[in-house]
Design goal:
By secondary structure, this protein is of the alpha/beta class. 28% of the residues lie in helices and 13% in strands.
Length: 422
């Protein structure tokens, strides 16, 4: 087996990052406007400026923002294959396992939206194949209305029929089944909890004779087991969870500091894991490096609302999750600059926002610092290092030490005859 390839046979021992891939630019071949990026100070909705230093001229789309030297600031499009492949090269270089590509169900309703999503999926598949990473497709139910389970079901049929994605030897599996996450059941913050629709989707994804046979992961509210579901009765929430295979509580924005992380791990997370073990479910906690959506909320929220503390906030989440017994972890997010949770390369020298837009940086740390940290966290999760031996984040004065990293990831055990590697 090529040691550069991450086995696709299990989620155990893996950290998978969310990959939004929803950034498009006018003239990129699929869009006539900016999508999730933008070009005018005061009118953008993202809080971190990606590091564009490695991008070629063909990958750069000009904005009205200017750097300190007066030069034009540029952004990228996820429709550009070269850009997405570079992201997967970074994953290989820093030992990251792969991603769950976000697919918003509402975006599949029309031909143009589905075409953009399918294009990013092609790029992700090629990146995973070239760089030996794994990927899965995560459905996000945001914006769906009751009675619309068929929208997801029709899209899944489209993907299986047209792309054969679950036969891809880079598509991640668990217990021999392709993993299909469904994010959003049980949330009531201005949306419908979609419990009945979720049960229909799970039934289809698991048991349909032609399109089923999948392991379903659910992205659920942070305190799903302790009734942090507002108007959703716990009994009904558990009906949905019992129908699925993997539970992944959404943590972004919930803990505000390291003390919150430790308190949650000790009072809630350990109980979550025990419940899942007793009920035959896997548990995949969500971690995030920090949070900021000042530009997205047009100044209604504070910039750098949840500080990263030089990586200490994220590292504390990893240490606590592993100590609590987690065997797989979801990293929010690889490229999410809208809410300031990105771990990919972000510049510490963003363009001038002219007092209308503010951009959060990596606090002077190298642009690849969080790629290094997540690579190290993977070794912690797999028992290849002890938490007290971390080399990136130091307890003393929160000062990180940045070592040189190998170009390739760690050696993996032989997958015991998995046909994907024969």
């Amino acid at each position: 087996m090529n040691e550069n390839f991450v086995p696709n046979i299990t989620l155990t021992g893996k950290i998978l990052s969310g990959y939004q891939g929803w950034f498009f630019a006018p003239g990129d071949g699929v869009s006539d406007r900016w999508v999730h990026f933008g070009d005018t100070p005061g009118e953008v909705g993202f809080d971190m400026w990606p590091d564009m230093s490695e991008c070629t001229a063909a990958e750069r789309f000009a904005t009205h923002f200017r750097h300190k030297d007066g030069s034009t600031a540029c952004l990228y499009s996820a429709n550009n294959e070269a850009t997405v492949l570079r992201h997967f090269r970074w994953m290989r270089e820093y030992g990251l396992d792969g991603v769950f590509l976000q697919r918003f169900v509402n975006g599949t309703r029309n031909t143009d939206g589905r075409m953009r999503l399918d294009g990013v999926l092609r790029n992700v598949r090629k990146g995973a194949a070239e760089h030996g990473r794994v990927y899965g497709l995560m459905y996000d139910l945001s914006g769906m209305r009751p009675g619309e389970a068929g929208v997801l079901i029709d899209d899944w049929k489209h993907l299986v029929d047209k792309t054969n994605l679950t036969r891809d030897d880079r598509y991640v599996r668990h217990n021999g089944k392709p993993v299909v996450p469904v994010w959003g059941p049980g949330f009531t913050d201005g949306r419908d909890p979609l419990l009945g629709d979720s049960l229909a989707m799970i039934e289809f994804l698991k048991h349909d004779p032609l399109y089923g046979g999948n392991a379903v992961m659910l992205g659920v509210p942070y305190r799903w087991r302790t009734t942090d579901t507002d108007l959703v009765p716990l009994s009904k929430m558990l009906d949905v969870i019992n129908a699925a295979d993997i539970v992944s509580p959404w943590a972004v924005g919930r803990p505000k500091n390291e003390d919150d992380v430790i308190r949650f791990a000790q009072t809630i997370q350990r109980g979550d894991i025990q419940w899942c073990q007793e009920h035959g479910k896997e548990y995949m906690p969500v971690v995030f490096p920090g949070f900021s959506w000042y530009n997205l909320r047009r100044g209604a929220a504070a910039s750098n609302e949840i500080p990263r503390n030089g990586g200490q906030f994220l590292w504390t989440q990893y240490r606590q999750a592993v100590a609590a017994g987690a065997t797989m972890i979801y990293q929010a997010m690889f490229d999410e600059v809208d809410e300031g949770t990105a771990i990919y390369k972000v510049t510490n020298d963003p363009p001038d926002g002219e007092g209308k837009s503010q951009f959060v940086t990596y606090e002077g740390l190298p642009s690849d610092f969080y790629l290094q940290l997540v690579g190290q966290a993977g070794r912690l999760l797999r028992g290849e290092m002890r938490a007290e031996d971390d080399t990136l984040v130091r307890d003393a004065a929160w000062q990180p030490f940045v070592p040189e990293l190998p170009v390739v990831g760690p050696e993996w055990p032989d997958p015991a005859g998995c046909d994907a590697f024969e």
